Fold this protein.
Amino acid sequence: MVPLKYWKKMYDNHNPMNCYASLKSNFKISDMWHVCSEKKIATSHFIPWFLVLCFLQFSCDRDNKNPGYEYFPDMAKSEAYETYVPNTAFADGKTAQPPVAGTIPRHIIPYQYPKTRDGMKQAGKELLNPFETTEENMARGKHEYDAFCANCHGFDGTGDGNLYTSGKYPSEPPSLVTEEILARPDGEYFHIMTLGSSIMGPFAALIRPEDKWKIILYIKNDLSAHNINKEY
Ligand code: HEC
């Protein structure tokens, strides 16, 4: 084996003849041939690999605010404006522009009742359930009720939802299958689902308006038929 210090010497020395000269006193000629011919290979590989290493070294960056050089960033960076980025094309500097004043999207009917007791009573008088009590509508209502309401009000409507019984939700949800609650007009339910009710959060746009009406059909007919006045 050739000791390390000679390998170093070999790299210092670019000329193979100098390589022989520098090793002459220490090695047999066969060893010298071995070292000096390898040197040519070693130096010719060494420089490009060194450059690659340098490149890799500087292609990593600790600054996570700056992506550094990116290779084909087109997938990450849209050429079009993203919804919430600044935009000099509009006077207010925003990309997402509000709807033109006085217009509403086709499929949205603004909810005009305030979140007060009077607002709820008013909604109860004026909003009528546009759907009929059919098996299909109630099945859809059950699907949505089980997804959005049962975790608090319980699958049977008595208020024993898992969120409450597990102790994760602090306030006991009322039973929805008492005569008193069932006697309330559909519009009041719709109002409560849309805006929430004191501690119960609003479902606003989370549930489609037509599904809210179908949930009410399900609670008032199917669910209550099986569980009316049941205690849990
Ligand atoms: C995170 C728990 C939670 C979820 C989910 C929830 N509720 Fe409630 N709900 C409550 C609580 C608590 C109350 C009682 C608080 C209050 O009086 O404001 C309540 C009250 C109500 C009331 C009024 C009862 C009364 O005595 O006035 C109705 C109706 C109602 N919820 C229907 C629903 C429907 C329908 C859904 C599903 C779309 C639903 N709730 C989802 C917790 C919940």
Q: What stands out?
A: The mean pLDDT is 84. Residues 133 and 221 are 8 Å apart (CA to CA).
